[in-house]
């Protein structure tokens, strides 16, 4: 049509170079980046599915679930020819829209700049953070081809390179799909249950900027607290977004002296708590044939405390936390009149395996207490087992809460069940295991992160339901399940057979009907 012949010639040359690197330069692929291994079983990608009616096969869907449960996760649009890591797949949203006891299921890609560009090009062209760097010669070759594409005008890196595959968040009257290597993408559901990508939300940052996939939303004020980490100084930047969606002035954290994979954080009434883990980012490692993201076991991890409404980092301080590597934060609050910050978070055990051997990685749920006056901390395990992907009643973000619900990893992101933990039992020195309820899925069935949905006019914190997708590997079919969060064994009160399987993924959200209706006009 109007395509420049030279441009199409360049495109073909770059594509041939990509294939040459995969076929002749890449060293043998390690299991963690071998797509035949990573994308096996229910990790394999699925096609998009337009809104499709489902069958309720057990119980009935409670009225408080009128709305939509949506879960994000990686789903590469092309089967990779070269190395591929689980964290690098294109974001796909799997939504179940519930109304009057009936359900409609839909799966759609988040239409990121990367997704649309690669769809148009017919193959992956943007470097993958976790898997592109696989040996010295292949890493440098891929960087050279990528640079050539940028110089040729095929790729505009100012438009972002992320896959928006990690989580969802609802704030400032908008629903976002998020991944920390880019800015959020605004999405919405249509009345018939379809998912539409509205676009990259550029008002949260400038060109090349990113934002965490785990902003904290204050239920009472509607404010969102967030941050971004970077490979250049400042390595960490904290900011908040007011209820109208306007980003407030940034607070650069200059006391973080090295780039680190800061994935999540916690907020209390007055503070924000950051981690400085042993998972570090060293772009120079590419020149040694190694991935830029790695683990530094010689580094002492730290926790950083800053005032939630700080205008600069002058009052920020750090406390060493040997042996504590935080990936996710469940919640945090203040006690003793504000003198103690309490945080609940899973601690990555065997952190050296977190990028290469997820199957060897375990997480221990811990209670961390930080004395704001003495600048000292102590921590302890509050539950036995490999726990992560934990949630609370969303109304209690940043406030003292009693219950959390966590997935039992086998390994993550596959979960063999869900536990309920009573944090009021974790206050004594020898509190031991604080589990008060547990639900294990049948053999061969695996779920993921649960999400808590309160009942209408709920009187107590745990008065509600846990929802999740569960896949039966024996039958190769997926279900949406509803568990009673108050029952002693987290009893399943409803389940819906889905018209297509849902690959194992990451984080989800429930959006009530009243909030969905506000999104229709976006």
From TrEMBL:
<keyword id="KW-0223">Dioxygenase</keyword>
<dbReference type="GO" id="GO:0016121">
    <property type="term" value="P:carotene catabolic process"/>
</dbReference>
<feature type="binding site">
    <location>
        <position position="263"/>
    </location>
    <ligand>
        <name>Fe cation</name>
    </ligand>
</feature>
<keyword id="KW-0560">Oxidoreductase</keyword>
<keyword id="KW-0479">Metal-binding</keyword>
<feature type="binding site">
    <location>
        <position position="328"/>
    </location>
    <ligand>
        <name>Fe cation</name>
    </ligand>
</feature>
<comment type="similarity">
    <text>Belongs to the carotenoid oxygenase family.</text>
</comment>
<dbReference type="Pfam" id="PF03055">
    <property type="entry name" value="RPE65"/>
</dbReference>
<dbReference type="GO" id="GO:0010436">
    <property type="term" value="F:carotenoid dioxygenase activity"/>
</dbReference>
<dbReference type="InterPro" id="IPR004294">
    <property type="entry name" value="Carotenoid_Oase"/>
</dbReference>
<feature type="binding site">
    <location>
        <position position="507"/>
    </location>
    <ligand>
        <name>Fe cation</name>
    </ligand>
</feature>
<keyword id="KW-0408">Iron</keyword>
<dbReference type="GO" id="GO:0046872">
    <property type="term" value="F:metal ion binding"/>
</dbReference>
<protein>
    <recommendedName>
        <fullName>Carotenoid cleavage dioxygenase 4</fullName>
    </recommendedName>
</protein>
<feature type="binding site">
    <location>
        <position position="214"/>
    </location>
    <ligand>
        <name>Fe cation</name>
    </ligand>
</feature>
<dbReference type="GO" id="GO:0009570">
    <property type="term" value="C:chloroplast stroma"/>
</dbReference>
